Amino acid sequence: MQDKIVSILTPSYNCGKYIHRLLDSVLKQTYPSIEMFVIDDGSVDDTKSLIQDYIPRFAERGYTLHYIYQENQGQSVAINNGLKLIKGDYLVWPDADDFYKDDDTIESLAQALEQGGEQVGMSRCLLEYLREEDLSFNWAVKVTEIKDSLFEDCLFGTNGFWYCAGACMVKTSALREMIPDLEIYTEKAAGQNWQLMLPILYKYKCATVPEVKYSVLQRSASHSRGQFSSRKQTNTRFNGYRNTILATLKKIPYMSFNELKLYSGKINAYYNHMIFKNNMVFFLRPLVPTIQRVKKLFKR
């Protein structure tokens, strides 16, 4: 296992203020063979100079770090472009504002993959959420039941499934089998986790390291955890999710037509419901003060 390469693929947009924590945590890893690609998605801050300052530090550690620039097109495009560059046996794709909590996180994820045998294509660890202001602990993921078949949980977001990519690792052999052209669906508002996780989890099992080994920064301005304040923005997000999942399902090898029809129908129904609920929330919001006044009158 130790001679196998771990590829780290990180999209970054104006994260010069945060990405040093991720880079520092990678440099502390006990795993000996790591290549890392930072795909700069059109940043206008100091991301480029910061990454370039770290390149010799990675080389001194025996790792490689590559800085790749693209015009601003979103995380999924950055990941899609980066997939063509990786040479590793394993892949992780952490966000630029998160970081590895423990020095042996990558080693633990790789070990879980190897110990799982040929049936396991993905591993994951538990994670914690930290407040942006002072990196203080907020909450951590907990699981009451560790499962290894997670396709439907990933598809529907059930049973506490967490999508945080930095807390998981996949075998690139499984990735190349299930996404032969290494082309994922891209849409600026949609992210990239379903596109990589769903195909692998359809065929392969997932091994869980039952320890908190990854830290997530709760940042309101981040892409993946940002706030969508208007009705139109929120509906755009939901439709982006729907489009991403449906396009990903259509490309999964070995999936029968009946399975595709069943899953697609459920996804369409779910997001139709979410958009209806969102529309109702924004429709009723202006009426809340009136409703509250009426309630007070009836209490007198």
Condensed summary:
With 300 residues, this protein is α/β, with parallel strands linked by helices. It has helices at residues 19-27, 47-61, 75-83, 105-116, 151-156, 172-178, 193-203, 231-251, 257-284, 288-299, and strands spanning 6-12, 34-41, 64-70, 90-92, 99-100, 120-131, 137-140, 168-171, 205-218. It contains 10 helices and 9 strands.
Q: What labels describe this entry?
A:
single chain; 300 residues; Spore Coat Polysaccharide Biosynthesis Protein SpsA, Chain A; 9-stranded mixed sheet; 10 helices
The CATH homologous superfamily of the largest domain is termed Spore Coat Polysaccharide Biosynthesis Protein SpsA, Chain A
Structural class: alpha/beta
Query: Could you tell me the strand content as a percent range?
Result: 15-25%
- Count up the domains: 2
Estimated radius of gyration: 21 Å
**Shape by Cα distribution:** globular
Task: Please give a structural write-up.
The chain is of the alpha/beta class and about 300 residues long. The chain folds into two domains: about 5-220, Spore Coat Polysaccharide Biosynthesis Protein SpsA, Chain A; about 230-290. It has ten helices and nine strands. The protein has helices at about 20-25, 45-60, 75-85, 105-115, 150-155, 170-180, 195-205, 230-250, 255-285, 290-300; strands at about 5-10, 35-40, 65-70, 90, 100, 120-130, 135-140, 170, 205-220. Strands 1, 2, 3, 4, 5, 6, 7, 8 and 9 form a nine-stranded mixed β-sheet that branches. Helix 1 (about 20-25) runs parallel beside helix 2, helix 7 (about 195-205) packs parallel to helix 8 (about 230-250) and helix 8 packs antiparallel against helix 9. The model is unreliable at about 225-230 (pLDDT under 50).
